[in-house]
Amino acid sequence: MAFKIYTKTGDQGQTGLFGGSRVSKGAVRIDAYGTVDELNSFLGLLRDQLADQHMRTTLRDIQDRLFTLGAHLASDPSKQMQVPDLLEADIDLLEREMDRMDEGLPTLRNFLLPGGHPAVSTCHVARCVCRRAERLVVVLHEQEPIEPILIRYLNRLSDYLFVLSRQIAQDLGVEEVPWRPRQT
Questions:
Q1: From CA 74, how far away is CA 88, in angstroms rounded?
Q2: In contact, 69 and 86? CB cutoff 8 Å
Q3: Residue ranges covered by each domain of the chain
Q4: pLDDT in the model for residue 14
Q5: 147 by DSSP, 3-state: which?
């Protein structure tokens, strides 16, 4: 018999965590890992738009880490679940990548308007989804403690995505448009 994607177990608005407990699909935990999944999808879209192999490889590694992060969020906190580790080295990688890109980017003096090329815009959308995921994970952490590295990783990832958007713009020859507040 073939595996079916639908189980009908969520038809009443409940879903299962790793470990077996059932929770509302409206729970902040579900919203948090659902938003991490959304972020992962946008990173896939971004990766598909890039020709630079180093960027593509780094984004693929980040996507893998986001599955790790999602596994932590999707696990029943009352059970001792075996999930992959998110490591300090994962945060270090993001910082090294940002430092490497920053060396060749012009000094930032203003806020920037997102846009200029579909890849740049996709990167900004991913950055915003990352910030939303971070906010949801913080809310979850306020309700029931989670590993702090999850919050730190998302915080650093949103910074990375901002720097990456600038690097992509530079590589594509796209002008960065500074935000100029309207003077009244």
A1: 21
A2: yes
A3: 25-105+114-172
A4: 65
A5: coil
Burial class of 92 by CB neighbour count within 10 A (0 to 12, 13 to 18, 19+): exposed
Per-residue pLDDT tens digits for 126-139: 999 999 999 999 99
What topology does CATH give the domain 25-105+114-172? Hypothetical Protein Ta1238; Chain: A; (1.20.1200)
Q: What is the pLDDT of residue 143?
A: 95
pLDDT at res. 108: 87
Measured CA distances, 127 to 22, 115, 131, 145, 164 (Å): 31, 13, 6, 24, 10
The angle subtended at Cα 20 by Cα 17 and Cα 22, nearest 5°, is 60
Tokens, residue 170: 């530079």
- Rounded distance between C-alpha atoms, residue 72 and residue 87, angstroms: 13
What are the structure tokens assigned to 37, written together?
């999944």
> Could you give the CA distance from residue 171 to residue 115 in angstroms, rounded to a whole number?
14
Write down the pTM of the prediction.
0.90
> Which residues of the chain have a pLDDT value below 70?
1, 8-11, 14-19, 24
